[in-house]
Amino acid sequence: MMTKNKAPKKWGRLICLALLGLFSAFGGLWCLCSMKGIELFSQDIRTDSFVEYISLYIFVIPLIGLALRFFKKIPIGLRVALFVSMCLNIALAAGAAIMQKLDIVNVDYMLPFFHVLLAFDAVALTSISFFCWRKSSIAEKFFEGSIFAAAGFGVIYIAYYYLSRWWSMDPSIFDKMIMPMAFLLMVTLILVGYIIDVYAKRVDDSQRKKLLMLAYKDDLTGLSNRTVGDGVLKKLDARTQDYLLVNLDLNFLKKANDSFGHAGGDLYLKSFAEIMKKVFTDATLLCRMGGDEFMVVTWYCLLAYRW
Q1: What are phi and psi of 166, to 5 degrees?
Q2: 304 FRET partner, CA 20 to 30 A, in 4, 12, 33, 217?
Q3: DSSP string covering 98-157, please?
Q4: Is this prediction's pTM over 0.85?
Q5: 235 CB burial (10 A radius; 0-12, 13-18, 19+)
């Protein structure tokens, strides 16, 4: 049962890490193109423009995926809206790439549509972040902080972009640096939130294992406890296969307690448990039922009860 629960958690963490990697990769590529750093590798203006706009269209997609992973307690309507928006962003990026390859329109033709989708995503994500802030974990607060920062910088950038086109302003250092700086801040906040989230889940897993040990292990001897033993006996009553069951009663425990104190009695029990482990090496279950009573069960179908 524990193994089955671990698999979805492991895949969930890998998906988050993959989405974070894609977001960082495409966002970093767009920043590199925006600051003309790509010219160190390519002097083809058409190719450089294609890479810049496609990376811009794509890097929002894993961000929405991360939001859907982080925000678990949001209305189903908003969740569906974000999923639809993510699909539209995928279609926009694919459509822009195909249309440029077919020489129908240039890839920047889709930029106004992208800005509309981006504005919707910013409003939706900031609204969710605002309403979820008080009940969010520390990791979620870092992610929400990155949303606030990106939305703020994004509004300023889009406004500056259209104003500069309207007034025919030449590109400035402000135009080239505002979004790369916002992206760097966003990635940093998301990465810190992800690390905190992984650490918190590891702590939870460790505590859960300790609780399971307390629930199913006899603290003194390390054998399974009566809870496991009673569960096994119920399973045996419901089946017809052959099995071997041995009940053991340790003699002179009271005398050991009276003569050497409870510490001596505990040592007596632990020593007997170690002898049981050496003698019943093929046993499916070694169990302390309580006090000086022990039980041994051997049956291949009970391997799931080995704790």
Answers
A1: -65, -40
A2: 12
A3: HHHHTTSS-GGGGHHHHHHHHHHHHHHHHHHHHHHGGG--HHHHHHHHHHHHHHHHHHHH
A4: no
A5: middle
Give whole-number Cα distances, 232 to 165, 263, 273, 278, 299, in Å: 76, 30, 19, 22, 11
**Can you tell me the distance from the alpha carbon of 179 to that of 185, in angstroms, rounded to the nearest whole number?**
10
Cα gap 68→78, rounded to integer Å: 10
Cross-strand bridge partners of residue 224: 217, 287
Measured between alpha carbons, how far is 194 from 18 in angstroms, rounded to an integer? Answer: 12
* Pairing mode, strands 293-298 and 285-290: antiparallel
Q: Chain-centre distance of CA 5, in angstroms?
A: 13
